[in-house]
Amino acid sequence: MTPLPFASFLRALLLGLACLAGAATAAPIQVTDVLGRQVTLPGPAHRVVLAQARHFQVLSLLAPDPAALLAGWSDELRTSFAPDYQAALKRFPALAHVPVVGRHTPDSFSVERTLALRPDLVVMTATFAGLRPGQAAGESPLVGRLEAAGVPVIVIDFFLQPMENTVPSLRALGYAIGQAQRTEAFIAFYQRHMRAVAERLADLPVDQRPPVFVHAHAGVTDCCSSPGTGTFNDMVAYAGGHNIGADVLKSATGKLNFEYINARAPRVYVATGTGSQKGAGLAIGAGVAGNDARASLARLIEANHLEALPAVRSGNSHGIWHAFNDTPLHVVFIEALAHWIHPDRFADVDPAATLRELNERFLAVPLEGTYLVDLKPGTAR
């Protein structure tokens, strides 16, 4: 064996000592998650497990190389959001080798597989942890098992209470991965856009909130899935509309029958989809051309016999990417809703421009394709 030259040996020794010194002096990071738990990490997390891979979009906002942070994730990005997975894979080929720790459901999540990956952080939602609203994290066996093994867990939420929990969730995750500056820059962007919508609607009378029908996962299920309470309902209300689903559905999602929808005469129709099921549902998202998305929207309206709705007859019908609903990217959805619901108040607001700025300034995996589409008058017939 050839001896290592003294100069090379000295450099290697000094580098090793520097790494040890850095590890010894790294300041602990303490974050507060959406349950109010204070979680302490010895330093920035570099091996993160996402219990739900949909939150890769959040990592893409907060980290320049989100793939490098992943120690493991669920398989839902590959399956439920396949076009977006392919777009991410093209930019970060290493994603193909990220170990899968389960599907996107708690019953499929493997604690053993997760611990074998030696993560320094696991990220999940309260629902995934098996917690009901108001229930303490200590009552979650899943959180308990991970923390007993010395693995920090933070709980985030962009779905159940997006208006309240988005900023705390961003700070918890962004600071935990050592991206405080980038996180605060995005929070400032997010709050500026959200505040601009709220300020323009501050004097809006209750009787000027038009009925809105959000047709969730349009065309994938029988007519017609709709949001009930929380999530999209909060976004419709924030944008100055009234979600007709919330009047009869007391859970986050449910189904409305045609007679009810027709009787409520919605003045704004919004179909959602992910483009993951080719030939079914709304063609929208990564790699979809605008004309294809518009034609798909027209077919959905016709297939579900919604042509007589006031929203369709007036041309106030639209399609949007469903996955805006469980990330801070919902700021784009809210701007789009506000523009569609109150075109007089938001004539100069361009949600597509907001999306372009997000792509340019923040997203490590830009959203390239059609994520918003308008159905022009007459094209549904």
From TrEMBL:
<feature type="domain" description="Fe/B12 periplasmic-binding">
    <location>
        <begin position="47"/>
        <end position="345"/>
    </location>
</feature>
<dbReference type="InterPro" id="IPR002491">
    <property type="entry name" value="ABC_transptr_periplasmic_BD"/>
</dbReference>
<feature type="signal peptide">
    <location>
        <begin position="1"/>
        <end position="26"/>
    </location>
</feature>
<keyword id="KW-0732">Signal</keyword>
<dbReference type="Pfam" id="PF01497">
    <property type="entry name" value="Peripla_BP_2"/>
</dbReference>
<protein>
    <submittedName>
        <fullName>ABC transporter substrate-binding protein</fullName>
    </submittedName>
</protein>
<dbReference type="InterPro" id="IPR050902">
    <property type="entry name" value="ABC_Transporter_SBP"/>
</dbReference>
